[in-house]
């Protein structure tokens, strides 16, 4: 009868756990110290500007050992016999690495990986970084002519530069609108694109623009630049909208608001519509800093022109009038004409 309790006791005895796997061997301790700031920052570097990264290495070993190169990043080289002699205990040695950025662009990180003839040492990684400038560059990709009066012809320049010693060649790779003139000027490694705005060539009702220009270069990594120029035409009296467009067949009455930029009262000396299909409901009135003229659409004529002579304008102000009949079909093979952008302004529907 004593066998049963003994058997139960054996079953309740915990089974010993298997022995834990020993941890992997730790990384061998370093036997050098870097005496220069790490990593080495080379800053902004030209596309062919060879730099030098310098690393100060101090031995903390108790016996001599040799260093050897295991791996180099693209563009790096160790010249001479800098690592030929063993590093003595306590010795400080400067290791100079040549950095050639040819073929690289932007933010670049690289390193030299060094090993030793001592199996009790780890490998050492000497890091550096730099920003490689593009071979061809422009001083700005977007510029503005700001506010332009109708009688002005303002100019601006985009300045290009090519680094590396080769001459720069620029070619205008986009078509210019009639109101914009361009001239390319070359001077060795630099070049300018000079632009001139001619407001007198603008279509009536056009008061602002954003020009997109493409300039090709002979730099292999920067073959094409996209440039942007914005401008805005201003004059003593501004019409809102600058173009009056009827798009709904049920809408026959819209209005144009005239506002003096300086806030002073002005007089509409003469107002008339050139063309058919529209009539002017309001004639010239007394002086005011803000005046509203109502235009009625009387037919299906597509275009006409509202011509205004004001006391503070040297040349007449022209406001295009258009009716875009949604039922009208464009000629075969012709693309439909989109509605011009309209400025915000008062609207009257009838």
From TrEMBL:
Positions of the UniProt region annotated as Disordered = 329-350
Q: Which UniProt keywords apply?
A: Signal
State the source organism's domain of life: Bacteria
Q: Which residues form the signal peptide?
A: 1-19
Annotated protein name in UniProt: Uncharacterized protein
């Amino acid at each position: 009868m004593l066998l049963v309790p003994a058997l139960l006791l054996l079953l309740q005895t915990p089974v010993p756990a298997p022995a834990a796997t020993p941890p992997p061997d730790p990384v061998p301790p370093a036997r050098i110290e870097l005496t220069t700031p790490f990593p080495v920052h080379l800053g902004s570097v030209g596309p062919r500007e060879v730099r030098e990264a310098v690393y100060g290495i101090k031995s903390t070993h108790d016996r001599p050992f040799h260093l050897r190169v295991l791996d180099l990043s693209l563009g790096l080289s160790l010249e001479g016999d800098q690592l030929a002699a063993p590093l003595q205990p306590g010795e400080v040695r400067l290791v100079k690495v040549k950095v050639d950025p040819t073929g690289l662009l932007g933010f670049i990180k690289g390193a030299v990986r060094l090993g030793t003839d001592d199996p009790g040492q780890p490998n050492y990684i000497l890091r550096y970084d730099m920003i490689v400038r593009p071979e061809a560059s422009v001083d700005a990709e977007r510029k503005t002519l700001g506010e332009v009066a109708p009688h002005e012809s303002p100019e601006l320049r985009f300045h290009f530069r090519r680094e590396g010693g080769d001459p720069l060649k620029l070619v205008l790779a986009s078509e210019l609108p009639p109101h914009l003139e361009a001239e390319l000027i070359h001077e060795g490694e630099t070049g300018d694109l000079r632009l001139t705005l001619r407001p007198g060539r603008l279509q009536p009702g056009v008061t602002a623009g954003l020009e997109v220009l493409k300039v090709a270069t002979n730099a292999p990594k920067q073959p094409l630049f996209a440039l942007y120029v914005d401008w805005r035409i201003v004059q003593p009296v501004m019409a809102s909208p600058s173009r009056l467009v009827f798009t709904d067949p049920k809408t026959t009455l819209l209005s144009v608001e005239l506002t003096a930029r300086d806030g002073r009262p002005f007089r509409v000396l003469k107002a008339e519509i050139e063309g058919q299909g529209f009539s002017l409901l309001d004639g010239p009135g007394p002086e005011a800093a803000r005046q509203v003229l109502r235009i009625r659409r009387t037919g299906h004529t597509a275009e006409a022109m509202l011509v205004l002579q004001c006391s503070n304008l040297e040349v007449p102000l022209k406001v295009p009038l258009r009716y875009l009949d949604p039922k009208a079909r464009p000629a075969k093979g012709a693309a439909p004409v989109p509605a011009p952008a309209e400025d915000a302004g008062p609207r009257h529907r009838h």
